[in-house]
Amino acid sequence: MGNAVMIQGTASDVGKSVLVAGLCRIFVQDGLRVAPFKSQNMALNSGITPDGKEMGRAQIFQAEAAGIAPDVRMNPVLLKPTSDCKAQVVLMGKVATNMDAVTYHNYKPRLRSRIQQVYRSLASEYEVMVLEGAGSPAEINLRDRDIVNMGMAELAECPVILVADIDRGGVFAAIYGTLALLPEHEKRRVKGVIINKFRGDKALLYSGIEQIEALTGVPVLGVMPWLKVDLEDEDSVVLERGKYDARTPKDLDIAVIQLPYMSNFTDFNALAAQPDARLRYVSQPHELQGCDLVILPGSKNTLSDLRWVRENGFEQALLAHHQANGAVLGICGGYQMLGKHIFDAVESGLEEMPGIGLLDVVTRFASSKTTTRVAGKTLPALPGIFSACAALRLEGYEIHMGETQRGPSVESFAHLNECNALPYDSAEGAVNAEGNVLGTYMHGVFDNGEFTRALLNALRERKGLKAWDGEPFDYQQHKQRQFDILADAMREYIDIESIYKIMHEHQEQSCI
């Protein structure tokens, strides 16, 4: 195995995932074969590998930064919360079971040897591995069975760099407290600290940096400024902090209903990046007023979220928006909610619930989970506002437990001819006869530039605006530019040569 380094944090959401992606891009720019790795990820954002396995979106976008295809070995354990105390456990890309927190904590020791085997298999194919921890290594109540922080660093026999978020305050206390709570042999594994998300004059930090280095004996390798870089976020905590609260007026206003168990909100990053569209996540029904498109996103607990939609007034707001000929689009769980009925004995334990009724479809949940990458074309003739999107190439992925049957008053949205890179023949999605309500199982549908531009231009035409000129926005190229911006900034503000030295010295010591 080659070199490796692990990024751990003083807390969740300190920027570990983004810095791992940046290191992956730096190493590949330097001519090295590099891969990311996170043994256990807890997130409702997931994606599908080319061979139809489910893994965390964070490791997928890190693989994109490394210029390689996502491989389920990069994230062997994925936990997808279904309630405050339970989660679906996905092992090596396939659903294993559902567990509560205590049961899973007791189960983790059984995963250690499997995780180590998977890591070694992946690491044998690359020159550098960049590992990511979860939460904090100082969670002393969980340390005895840890498989994702210092427990994983021990399995991988790699050095650790600790990341602290100065934007949330108390950065020096977070660094000192984290290191103070580590046993001495684990503290010795921490070879450097990165202070992340800094705003202001770095000169104000110098005295604090000198003191924290003296107190801990661990050098500060850099201070990363708050970057305006458009990269995927691992979980919806960024929505709570208003990252996507775009206040700048734009020609089009798109509202995504922020469900309690919303999954794959990364579906809408490509929309948020469009030059003429303002994307908002809304939690109050009155916030739908005046918007051009309402999106009902995916959900990890469809019936629970449907109940929330009903109890919080969103159902009536959606019906009113539809009656005013407003456009509505549902993805995955949102598609299921827009139908007439849902029969479920899998996700929530409930048997059935009436849907919102904007699409003539019925969904029945099954115990098996669909996890596929798909491709095809929208139908050659679509009604209403979606007529502008006819006969366009689409690529995306599906992750769902249910099967949805169309009734006579809806048309399918697309014809799929490829599934996990194999020939396929299936109708997908549904569009109502009026052509203002669409449902699809295809995550990543807005990553398709021609489709997204055609839909946005149709919305512009409805408002009496001219079509947006120029080529469709290329979201894939946009992401690649963001990775390069991130890498350039990290080279400027972090001592990358010291990171190379840390890896090389650790590898030499391990070989003695």
Itemize the secondary structure elements and their pairings.
Blueprint: E1 3-9, H1 16-29, E2 34-37, E3 40-42, E4 46-48, E5 54-56, H2 57-66, E6 77-81, E7 86-91, E8 94-100, H3 101-107, H4 112-123, E9 128-132, H5 150-156, E10 160-165, H6 171-181, H7 184-187, E11 190-198, H8 206-216, E12 220-225, H9 237-240, E13 252-257, E14 262-263, H10 269-272, E15 277-282, E16 293-296, E17 298-299, H11 302-311, H12 314-323, E18 327-331, H13 333-337, E19 341-343, E20 352-354, E21 361-378, E22 393-406, E23 410-411, E24 414-419, E25 422-428, E26 430-432, E27 437-440, H14 449-462, H15 475-493, H16 496-511
Parallel strand pairs: 1-9, 1-10, 2-9, 3-6, 10-11, 11-12, 13-15, 13-16, 16-18, 18-27, 19-21
Antiparallel strand pairs: 4-5, 6-7, 7-8, 14-17, 19-20, 21-22, 21-24, 23-26, 24-25, 26-27
Pathway: Cofactor biosynthesis; adenosylcobalamin biosynthesis
Keywords: Cobalamin biosynthesis, Glutamine amidotransferase
Function: Catalyzes amidations at positions B, D, E, and G on adenosylcobyrinic A,C-diamide. NH(2) groups are provided by glutamine, and one molecule of ATP is hydrogenolyzed for each amidation.
Question: Could you please describe the fold and organization of this structure?
Answer:
The active site is at residues 332, 443. Residues 5-228 form the CobQ/CobB/MinD/ParA nucleotide binding domain. Residues 253-450 form the CobB/CobQ-like glutamine amidotransferase domain. The chain has 2 domains: 3-231 and 479-511, Rossmann fold (3-Layer(aba) Sandwich), CATH 3.40.50; 252-464, Rossmann fold (3-Layer(aba) Sandwich). 31% of the residues lie in helices and 29% in strands. It contains 16 helices and 27 strands. The strands form 6 sheets. It has a 7-stranded mixed sheet with strand order 15-13-16-18-27-26-23. It has a 6-stranded parallel sheet with strand order 2-9-1-10-11-12, with helices on both faces. Strands 19, 20, 21, 22, 24 and 25 form a 6-stranded mixed sheet that branches. A hairpin with a 4-residue loop joins strand 26 (430-432) and strand 27 (437-440). The protein is globular, with a radius of gyration of 23 Å.
